[in-house]
Amino acid sequence: MPKTSAGLILYREMGGKLEVLLVHPGGPLWAKKDTGVWSIPKGELDEGQPGGDYLATAKREFAEETGFPPPTGEFISLGSITQKGGKIIHAWACKGDVDTKAIKSNKFSMEWPPRSGREQLFPEIDRGEFYAIEEAKQKINPAQIDFLLRLQEAAG
Fold first, then answer.
1. Which domain holds residue 112?
2. Nearest to 34 by CA among 148, 126, 124
3. How far apart are CA 53 and CA 56, in angstroms?
4. What is the pLDDT along the chain (156 residues), one digit of tens a residue?
């Protein structure tokens, strides 16, 4: 069974242009990568989560990855996509704004350097930025571009 995640796209209008919040994965494996690796704030459903409450997961993951409470406005369903590795992601968009300089992500542990036997903690995301939609299409994981296209259509 493929892994399933859920996420939120926070969007705003600046100078008449649509902008979206994307996050960059943390840890040493992603430190020097940029184009095509940014993502929407997202995460996997908790095991045994009743009824697959994807929106609740998306809100929780937004808070964990950004350090901000989830937005409280209207949530627009953007459906789901399947990434290259088979992971299914469900997404919603909500209008809002955050100070990207104040993002504070949860952490994960991994062996680093490889085969050293030492576990180190790294932020799940190391930064977030608002990007105009056309630039966001260049930055985001290619499988997630459909979410941006759907948001553009929904936002008019």
1. 4-155
2. 126
3. 5
4. 788 999 999 999 999 999 999 999 999 999 999 999 999 999 998 766 555 689 999 999 999 999 999 999 999 999 999 999 899 999 999 999 999 999 999 999 999 999 999 999 999 999 999 999 999 999 999 999 999 999 999 987
Rounded CA-CA distance 63/69 in Å is 5
Query: Nearest to residue 70, comparing CAs of 46, 91, 98, 45?
Result: 98
DSSP type of residue 60: H
Q: Work out the number of other CB atoms within 10 angstroms of the CB of residue 125.
A: 24
The helix/strand count (H/E) of the chain reads as 3, 8
Q: Residue 22: give its domain's CATH number.
A: 3.90.79.10
Q: How far apart are CA 74 and CA 55, in angstroms?
A: 12
Report the predicted TM-score, pTM, of the whole model to 2 decimal places: 0.93
